């Protein structure tokens, strides 16, 4: 409640009580929620405007908030405005002329670029198809890899003779490991 | 290119008469005049907005040189895209939207680049330590000192606001934009503008209150 005398708009809460229910019924929370719109004259409802007005005049805290904000904004508006530097327009002219010298129609390059890309993709697709049809004639079957975990692919025998028993794929499935099976005969 | 560079073959008197006539036109008529081939109309738009935009961008990013650079970029974009501007809309809202987006990008880039941030802090720090300058000899030095302190205080308080609150606050309190215009410039709905403005004002008042007794 300090500095109350500074706020000429402040009135005694008892006086508000005497003014009746029309000016009562607004707490600080509601006031602060609506404050910005009130300050900017955006509250159309006359009843709410009246309640805001009386709350502002009866509540020292909200009155102080209003006063401080108004004073702060006054100081802010009184600050010296920056002036563009003396060569601002000259530099702008240079930059604009540079922009004018840039390749014409750059902003419109999007659709053209997209069309070119599509054409390139279609050409590649076509060429790939033609190449595939030609190469089909020369295509040879690749050797089929036969996987038989039982057949040893490395000989553990020390002799020069190949192991005729090891090449046959008709051999029964060994019961042990490949190494054991190789040494068995 | 039909802009600042074009040099109409007219006498100085004719040129100044044309300039005076352009000054009387509102923004939308200026845009229309420019699109009809009157290159001086663009000069008038630059003249009309350069200072306002410079101060708006400066308040948003806090760096004078960079602000000037960005304002130039705003005019380059305006020049490039003016033929696409919807003339049923307000030109000032459009140009502020461009400026606002550039300022936002600048802040985003700066937050990713600590070197730029450091340079800005250093520059501001040096500005804080400049000697006192007494603007008005009719006032007592302590009054002047207090006034200067107050000015610095409110500038500092604005800089303390979060970026999206600060923009709304500056657009409303310094540029005098309506809520609808702010909503369009900042690219958010009216409810968000109201809430951001309320919060910004609240925070600003909190920051300056201790010094305004």
Strand-and-helix sequence of chain A, N→C?
HHHHHHHH
What's the main sheet of chain A like? none
How large is the count of helical segments of chain A? 8
Question: The CATH topology of the largest domain in chain B is what?
Answer: Rna Polymerase Sigma Factor, Chain: A
Shape of chain B: globular
Q: What is the 3D form of chain A?
A: elongated
Largest sheet of chain B: none
Quaternary structure: heterodimer
Protein chains sharing the most extensive interface: A-B, 37 and 43 residues
Structural class of chain A: mainly alpha
- Mean pLDDT over all positions of chain B: 84
How would you portray this structure in words?
- The complex is a heterodimer of chains A (185) and B (213).
- Chain A has a domain at 4-78.
- By secondary structure, chain A is mainly alpha-helical.
- Mean pLDDT of chain A is 72; it is low at 1-11, 162-168 and 176-185.
- The longest helix of chain A is centred in the middle third of the chain and has 29 residues, at 109-137.
- Chain A has helices at 13-19, 28-39, 46-58, 60-78, 88-101, 109-137, 164-167, 178-183.
- In chain A, helix 2 packs across helix 3 (46-58) and helix 3 (46-58) crosses helix 4.
- Helix content of chain A is 56%, strand content 0%.
- Chain A is elongated and about 100 Å long.
- Chain A has 8 helices and no strands.
- Chain B has 213 residues and is mainly alpha-helical.
- Chain B has 2 domains: 1-112, Orthogonal Bundle (Rna Polymerase Sigma Factor, Chain: A), CATH 1.10.1740.10; 131-213, Orthogonal Bundle (Arc Repressor Mutant, subunit A), CATH 1.10.10.10.
- Chain B is built from 10 helices and no strands.
- Chain B has helices at residues 12-24, 27-35, 40-61, 64-81, 91-112, 114-128, 141-160, 163-173, 179-186, 190-208.
- In chain B, helix 4 crosses helix 5 (91-112) and helix 8 (163-173) packs across helix 10 (190-208).
- Chain B is globular.
- Classes of the chains: A mainly alpha (185), B mainly alpha (213).
- At the A-B interface, helix 2, helix 4 and helix 5 of A face helix 3, helix 4, helix 7 and helix 10 of B.
